[in-house]
UniProtKB/TrEMBL annotation:
Statement: the UniProt record of this protein carries the keyword Mitochondrion: no
Keyword NAD: no
GO biological process, one term: proteolysis
Residue ranges that the Swiss-Prot or TrEMBL entry lists as coiled coil: none
InterPro entries, sorted: PA_domain (IPR003137), Peptidase_S8/S53_dom (IPR000209), Peptidase_S8/S53_dom_sf (IPR036852), Peptidase_S8_subtilisin-rel (IPR015500), Peptidases_S8_3 (IPR034197), S8pro/Inhibitor_I9 (IPR010259), S8pro/Inhibitor_I9_sf (IPR037045), SBT (IPR045051)
PANTHER family linked: PROPROTEIN CONVERTASE SUBTILISIN/KEXIN
Domain Peptidase S8/S53 span(s) in chain numbering: 140-625
Protein name in the entry: Subtilisin-like protease
Record-annotated PA domain positions: 410-481
High-level lineage: Eukaryota, Viridiplantae, Streptophyta, Embryophyta, Tracheophyta
Length: 775
């Protein structure tokens, strides 16, 4: 409608009403006050939080009813329903450090053989152990790992407490009852369980019981999978549906105690296979409780779609409070690869974990009508009758209204049943979920389907328990199949039954989905830190969820295969728990340093780690390399950092509102001088010198020599080049000077070169990656 003189005033009135409505629309905001000062009871803290609300609300009742969470343990702050105007007024109060608006789509989950391959299980073929780490750590006994996820299926055999001793005396948590969950569901393995839903329900309204349990119980599968990866007991004769990956399933630290904090929930109107949501105010409440409960490690397989600054990132804020209590925090790097600068969880006090493969495949080859046999992978339990079937490309059999640019992707409702019936369908990745494409082929009457990777997915194959005969192929093979379809009038194919193949080579390789550096929030910190198994990982599953999570899938499984940095993160959580058991006095930064400097760069054919397509990977994919827990137990030297060091780092990047009790110096140190076990120098102009400090945790009398592999185009000098130690705990400081040479002058701006510096004493190799770009 065109605006005329008559209707223009009406338009202005409508616009004004909309603006007024938005000013009065209530949303959840987190009011962050930093640290608690002085000794106060929980009631006194809550009354103090109420007082802030009284200052902006019209009535006492309104102020009290608007409070969603009062953070009372380590974190000082509260979450409340506020109008934008009320939030703005609170932000102007001197004691208020920040006011953060909650967003429903900001955080989400980042969706056995992996431990044998990493050198932890007996009979490891991947690496030879010089000492049995599991025995030395007593399998992580009495270390408490907190899991922030979407709950747990406590009946799984992976969570049996048979033979476990009494609760650790330091434990102060609870077992919270709720839907289909009572205190009897906790035991000596799952020693605590809580759920946090107030933020979710403030946004979506009361949870739909058909979507999720209003309790710590897992109705999705993800939380059970990650918890059992960290601390699942050893369970024999376990496999995925169809008998794949058959063997003994075990978590990395089988005797750790697990504390479950359910913070992620199903999204109304959206299939579970498409993911779920985790609200910042719920996560902060969980982390505040976890710190008070007495956890030693936090494993958080949650991330963001877009980079978030540290003072607006609930995970970073909560983790900083955890670090002050010496709690190790491991988080997923994210699943937004292979594009660069896509990382989540970039704070230097967090261990940021990428995802790589293990040495196992699930081979299900395709035989084409021209006789060509093409490798594919799947874990679907369904098999075709051994004969040739007509093969079609999805774009050839779509309904008339499907846009051409997505016609080959088998999106819901896109395929014509008449044209699909009885055929094997080639579907390409892109939009939609992998399992959803399989369901669409089945819905339309297809007999089987081939899932073809797109260019971005390359050669990586994440397998799924599809609901019909199926297999997945890499990008090059997808193109070959497509060319074959177009080259003949009656293309034919057969999908062979899948088999499990161990000791596949090369392994590990980097998953294409793993998010990449550089860090956009703090480019002076090299992230991710490390990589661990995250591709096709078998672990326990919720029996209230199907293996595909599709609504149409009614199968029930006890164990399932899943991929993502969600799966790699708990590997590092478990390794951190083992190190905590062996070295209880080590700081969280010392444990991170030990893992980083002992990581492996070579695959199982003796060559540098690559991506799935065989191209050399770099530290923006794997950090320092593939984790090696057995080596991390005896790293020789560690790069330690204190809570104060992190606050000084924050001062150096102009973040001054995370701890009100700390005053930044007039001239803070350079962000590059944070004592980190890696080195990143963005936009180098000429020469840069940074300082590092190592602590001897090896032999009392030891001498370390430096070895440098400089990034191409740069020179690197370490001074002094020899470090002499006379006792354990002794610290030594050294400088690293990086200089651009004539070759680097022709480098593309923002393009990084990579190198390494290593301290070695004949026993230990304390290796750190270097990343440098030119201005």
């Amino acid at each position: 409608m065109a605006l005329t003189g008559k209707n223009f005033p009406v338009f202005l009135l409508v616009l004004l009403l909309l603006l007024l409505a938005s000013c009065h629309e209530k949303q959840v905001y987190i009011v962050y006050l930093g640290e608690h000062s002085g000794e106060k009871t929980y009631n006194e803290i809550e009354e103090n939080h109420h007082s802030y609300l009284f200052s902006v609300k019209e009535t006492v009742e309104d102020a009290k009813s608007s409070l969603i969470y009062s953070y009372k343990s380590s974190i000082n702050g509260f979450a409340a329903l506020l109008t934008p105007d009320e939030a703005s007024k609170l932000s102007e109060i001197e004691e208020v450090l920040s006011v953060l608006r909650s967003h429903s789509t900001k955080y989400f989950l980042q969706t056995t053989r992996s431990w044998e391959f990493s050198g932890l299980q007996q009979g490891s073929k991947g690496f030879q152990l010089k000492e049995d780490l599991l025995l030395k750590s007593r399998y992580g006994q009495n270390v408490i790992v907190g899991m922030l996820d979407n709950g747990v299926w406590p009946e799984s055999k992976s969570f049996s407490d048979e033979g476990m001793g009494p609760y650790p005396p330091s434990w102060k948590g609870i077992c919270q009852s709720g839907d289909a969950f009572s205190s009897s569901n906790c035991n000596k393995k799952i020693i605590g369980a809580r759920y946090y839903i107030k933020g979710y329900e403030a946004h979506y309204g009361p949870i739909n019981g058909t979507l999720d349990y209003r309790s710590p119980r897992d109705k999705d599968g993800h939380g059970t999978h990650t918890a059992s990866t960290v601390g699942g007991r050893s369970v024999q004769n376990v496999s995925a549906l169809g008998g794949f990956a058959c063997g003994t399933a075990s978590g990395g630290a089988p005797l750790v105690r697990l504390a479950i904090y359910k913070v992620c929930w199903a999204i109304p109107g959206q299939g579970k296979e498409e993911g779920n949501t985790c609200f910042m105010e719920d996560m902060l409440a969980a982390m505040d409780d976890a710190i008070a409960d007495g956890v030693h490690v936090l494993s958080i397989s949650i991330g963001t779609k877009d980079p978030v600054s540290f003072n607006e990132d609930g995970i970073a804020i909560g983790a900083l409070h955890a670090i002050k209590k010496n709690i190790v925090v491991a988080c997923s790097a994210g699943n937004s690869g292979p594009a660069p600068a896509t990382l989540s969880n970039m704070a230097p006090w967090i261990i940021t974990v990428g995802a790589s493969s293990i040495d196992r495949k699930f081979l299900a080859p395709i035989v084409l009508g021209n006789g060509r046999k093409i490798e594919g992978q799947t874990v679907t339990p369904y098999m075709l009758e051994k004969k040739m079937y007509q093969l079609v490309y999805a774009a050839q059999i779509v309904n008339a209204d499907v846009p051409k640019n997505i016609s080959g992707q088998c999106l819901p409702g896109s395929l014509s049943p008449k044209a699909t019936k009885g055929k094997i369908v080639l579907c390409l990745r892109g939009n939609g979920t992998r399992v959803g494409k399989g369901w669409e082929v089945k819905r339309a009457g297809g007999i089987g389907f081939i899932l073809g990777n797109g260019r971005a997915n390359g050669a990586e194959l994440a397998v799924d328990t599809h609901i019909l005969p199926a297999t997945g192929v890499n990008y090059e093979n997808a193109l070959e199949i497509l060319n074959y379809i177009h080259s003949t009038k009656t293309p034919m194919a057969y999908i062979a039954p899948a088999t499990t193949k161990l000791d596949s080579k090369p392994a590990p390789f980097m998953a294409s989905f793993t998010s990449r550096g550089p860090s956009t929030v703090s480019p002076n910190i090299l992230k991710p830190d490390i990589t661990a198994p995250g591709l096709n990982i078998l672990a326990a599953w919720s029996e209230a969820s199907s293996p595909t999570k599709l609504d149409q899938d009614h199968r029930i499984v006890k164990y399932n295969i899943l991929s993502g940095t969600s799966m790699s993160c708990p590997h590092i959580g478990a390794a951190s728990a083992l190190l905590k058991a062996i070295h209880p006095s080590w700081s969280s930064s010392a444990i991170r340093s030990a893992l980083i400097t002992s990581a492996e760069l070579i695959n199982n054919v003796g060559k540098p780690i690559t991506d799935a397509s065989g191209k050399l990977a770099d530290p923006f994919q794997f950090g320092s390399g593939h984790f090696r827990p057995s080596k991390a137990a005896d790293p020789g030297l560690v790069y330690d950092a204190s809570y104060t060091d992190y606050l000084l780092f924050l001062c150096s990047i102009e973040v001054k509102n995370l701890d009100s009790s700390f005053k930044c110096p007039i001239k803070p140190p350079s962000p590059a001088d944070l004592n980190y076990p890696s080195l990143a120098i963005p936009k180098l102009n000429g020469t840069s010198t940074v300082e590092r400090r190592v602590t001897n945790v090896g032999s009392s009398n030891s001498v370390y020599f430096i070895k440098v592999i400089p990034p191409p185009g740069f020179s690197v000098k370490v001074s002094p080049s020899i470090l002499f130690f006379t006792h354990v705990g002794q610290r030594k400081t050294f400088t690293i000077t990086v200089k651009a040479n004539s070759v680097s002058k022709g480098m593309e701006k923002d393009k990084y070169a990579f190198g390494w510096y290593t301290w070695f004493d004949g026993i230990h190799n304390v290796r750190s990656p270097i990343a440098v770009s030119v201005a």
